[in-house]
Amino acid sequence: MSLVSEVSPLQRIADDLAEHGWSQQPLFLPYIPTLELATECRQRASLGELAPAAIGRGTGQQVREGVRGDRIQWIEPGQSVACDRYLATLEELRLVLNQTLFLGLEDFEGHFAMYPPGAFYARHLDRFHDDDRRTVSTVFYLNQDWQTADGGELRLHLDAGWHDVPPIGGTLMVFLSAGMLHEVLPATRERMSLTGWFRRRAVLPL
Ligand code: OGA
Ligand code: MN
């Protein structure tokens, strides 16, 4: 019997979040499922299904390309085998996070996102002022053969400076939505992800 206990990848994410509020998982999914999601994202984009992303909620929503230049489409259960598998994996993660961190996460909402070359998302928090349900942010990258020179890093603003994450296909980033200031830097090529949020029950009245 090994003296070193095996920590599952999902448990490692929970431990990272507890320790410093974010987790970077370089090979969260293997090549094929990542490629299937990338293919679906690209197909949906070429069919014109991705729309300019808005900022804020409800009547406060507006599109401002100076703040956020991506196009998105929300994913729904049952739309494809690849998305359903991804949702099933994130459901496992939701349960582990609840067991370990007692976050009371109730559901997940997610969308494909595509940033054209040069697009960015200025520094922000993922929690809205008038809706505090978003609790844990997840960003899964879909980009094959991403090179350092392509740019497009996710920049986490930390107390001690910053941490840059290149959007390499197969990488999952997880962070606490309320406290982690972050931004997306411009890239020289198209940048795709499947981004989402685990939500808890509303505490503020909606
Ligand atoms: C977002 C976001 C980060 C990324 O969509 O809110 O911050 O790396 N995305 O795409
Ligand atoms: Mn964000």
Automatic annotation (TrEMBL):
Pfam families: 2OG-FeII_Oxy_3
Gene Ontology BP terms: cellular response to hypoxia
Alphabetized UniProt keyword annotations: Dioxygenase, Iron, Metal-binding, Oxidoreductase, Vitamin C
PROSITE patterns attached to this UniProt entry: FE2OG_OXY
Cofactor: L-ascorbate
Domain Fe2OG dioxygenase: 104-200
SMART domains from the UniProt entry: P4Hc
GO terms, molecular function: ferrous iron binding; L-ascorbic acid binding; peptidyl-proline dioxygenase activity
Listed name of the protein: Fe2OG dioxygenase domain-containing protein
